[in-house]
Amino acid sequence: MVSAPPKILTNTWVKAAWDEFVAIADNPDQIKLGKAQFYYDNGSMRIENMTTGFSHGRSHFLLASAISLYGTLQDLNFISLDNGSFRKPGERECQPDLAFYFGNDLPEIPPGNSPVSVDLYGPPTLAIEISASTLSDDMGQKRLLYERLDVDEYWIVDVANAKIIALSISEGGSRQVQTSVVLPDLQIAVIEEALRRIQSENDGEVNRWLLKQFA
């Protein structure tokens, strides 16, 4: 007799041991959730149904393209990850919508689909959560998670209002910034304007506008 998959609460933080979390995060098919994102921090796990709507998808692609374009034009060295997983065994895990490593000494992460070990390769320099329905949590518990994970910068993207809350993280705390620390001289307002423009313009038009701003 085949046992039924365990009942899992989604889109909320649930107390769980690390081993319980890993058993689910490493074998998502057994609980038949479909596409999901997994988080663990401070003795609790959160499993989110992955957002796949039009506005979320457009915002996601715009942010990835804009940051890649800016980094390239600024001659920055970087690695981009889409829906990557970052794990500090026994303590925390996150799966931000977008993540980037910047710097002259980039981690040499081997090919494969296992979570990136923060102990071996460090946390991402920039983590981004694109909030279509998770804004309060992205600003609350996840903010604490990224502070404890010691990323350098964390962006919360409010899709409905085309707003970005950019937080610079240091010494276990964070403060809002209007100019990115990890992307030198990048004004957050420029990316917000691009988010507004994709509501009425196609990608080619928005990219050409961004090139003028970045020049």
How does this model look, in words?
The chain has one domain: tt1808, chain A (Alpha-Beta Complex). It has helices at residues 18-25, 54-73, 118-121, 135-139, 141-149, 188-197, 203-214, and strands at 13-15, 36-41, 44-49, 78-82, 86-88, 92-94, 98-102, 116-117, 126-131, 153-158, 163-170, 173-176. The chain has 215 residues and is of the alpha+beta class. It contains 7 helices and 12 strands. It has a 6-stranded mixed beta sheet with strand order 4-7-9-10-11-12. Strands 1-3-2 form a 3-stranded antiparallel beta sheet, sandwiched between helices. A 3-stranded mixed beta sheet has the order 6-5-8. A hairpin with a 4-residue loop joins strand 10 (153-158) and strand 11 (163-170). Helix 2 (54-73) packs parallel to helix 7 (203-214) and helix 6 (188-197) runs antiparallel to helix 7 (203-214).
Spell out the key features of this protein.
three-stranded antiparallel β-sheet, single chain, six-stranded mixed β-sheet, 215 residues, 12 strands, alpha+beta
